[in-house]
Amino acid sequence: MPEPTKKDEMPNGQPEVWSLGEGQAPEELDKPIETPPLSTLLIEQPQSATVSVGGDASFIAKVEAKDLLRKPTIKWFKGKWMDLASKTGKHLQLKETFDRLTKIHTFEMHIIKAKDSYAGNYRCEVTYKDKFDSCSFDLEVKESGQGSQNIDIRSAFKRSSEGQEDAGELDFSGLLKHREP
C-alpha cells in the first residue's frame, strides 16, 4: 500500500500557510482610535457626594433632547433594585425640568436631612425608545461633630438621692379622692 503524500503546495504553486492577516500599516498605528461616546443619552451624570448627618445632598442628571421627540424616562434606584419613585416625600424629592432654549432635560434628586441609613450606592437609568443609559454614584453620610455628647441613658434612671430602703407605705387614697369623675 502506497503512503499518502503530503501536500505542501496549493494548486497555483503557492505554499499552504495559515495567516492571521496582514496587520496594520505603520501609518495606521499613529492614528488615534475613535471611540464612540460612552454615554448615549446623559450629557451630565450625577456625581458622588459626602454629607454630614442632617445635611442635604443633590444629584443632577442632564439629557440633551435635540434628537428626541418626547421626554425620556428616568428612574432612580438605591442599591440594585429599590426604585426611589415610591419613596418620595419629606426626605426625598425628585424634580424634572426642561429648558426650551438649550433643549436639555434636567432631572434632580434631592436628599433632605440625610440619615446614616441613606448612605450607599445609587443608580440613575435613562431610557428613550431603544436607547438606554445608566450611571452609578455613591452617597456617604458622615457623623456630625455632635458625637462628643456621649450620654449614658442609665444615668437618667438612677435614683437622685440615697434614700432608705423602705420609705414607708404610700397612701394613694388622698389622690384618688381628689380625682375628676
From TrEMBL:
The keyword tRNA processing does not apply. One of its GO terms (biological process) is sarcomere organization. Residues 1-34, 143-181 are annotated as: Disordered. It comes from Takifugu bimaculatus. InterPro entries: Ig-like_dom, Ig-like_dom_sf, Ig-like_fold, Ig_I-set, Ig_sub, Striated_Muscle_Regulatory. GO terms for cellular component: M band. Keywords: Repeat. The keyword Repeat applies. Pfam families: I-set. PROSITE patterns: IG_LIKE (PS50835). Residues 1-10 have a biased composition (Basic and acidic residues). This is Ig-like domain-containing protein. Residues 36-140 form the Ig-like domain.
